[in-house]
Amino acid sequence: MTHNPPIIKGYSDSSFGQIHWRMAGENREEVDIFCLHPAPYSGLAYTNIMPHLAKNRRVFAPDYPGHGGSAPFRHDASINDYARAMAEILEELTNGRKTHLVGFHTGCLVAAELSIIAPQFVDGITIIDVPAFDAETRAKLLPKSGGEYVITPELSCLEPAWLLGMTKRIESQGVERSFEMFTEQLRHGRGRNAAFHAGFSYDVEGQFAKISCPVHIIASQSALLDATRRAATLIPHAAYVERTDIKRAVLDEAAEKVAAQILRQVKK
């Protein structure tokens, strides 16, 4: 019988305060994988896929500043802020070795930026369901989804988080996992929308053109399919694959399939 590697937790000091992270697997010769999470969650989003990725290597899933267990941070954070924080702990956790980055949703943008500002630590990136919206769409989404989260004495203030964390997830992820994700996004308090703000403020066209490392793009059958196709036209020499057989819960229900697809791209 094979056993999944356990997930352990830890903290690293950085110039952004303490950064919380999860790790699975053992330190071997194989390239480490560094997973960058979607808004408005944390590295918790990767806990179901990490064991599938960590059979022969280490896999890390950190929380951005202001997310999960990491230190509080500004509500108007940028993707560059998150990438610089991740670069600091990546260097510490991997002893400066080159690492393969995996990004999902907002994490795709952080992975892209990290590969640009710290190329010495990155041997390639795999980005899944990329929010590569055009400038007009980003401008519309920014005030709608990127403003400070309003907390009031009324229960109704939780409705946006409940819709995203529970209503849209229960069928594919079950009640317990959905509730876990619902409560995780509430840890940010008024900063719940910070990573949305960062993502919709990001110069996708300008920054994607600067990526020089190998890039693999995976598109599932999701609402981001067209945006992900667009990403493949913006990143020089990107390899693109559509997995339209994967229709929901990419990191949970489809974790084994997605992990196998990612591992095809990771250098030995």
TrEMBL record:
* Gene3D superfamilies per record: alpha/beta hydrolase (3.40.50.1820)
Q: Where is the AB hydrolase-1 domain?
A: 35-150
Name any one Pfam family assigned in the record: Abhydrolase_1
**Stored InterPro entries:** AB_hydrolase_1 (IPR000073), AB_hydrolase_fold (IPR029058), AB_hydrolase_sf (IPR050266)
| Cellular-component GO terms for this entry | membrane
**Classification via PANTHER family:** HYDROLASE, PUTATIVE (AFU_ORTHOLOGUE AFUA_2G14860)-RELATED (PTHR43798:SF33), MONOACYLGLYCEROL LIPASE (PTHR43798)
Q: What is this protein called?
A: AB hydrolase-1 domain-containing protein
Q: Which organism is it from?
A: Sphingorhabdus lutea
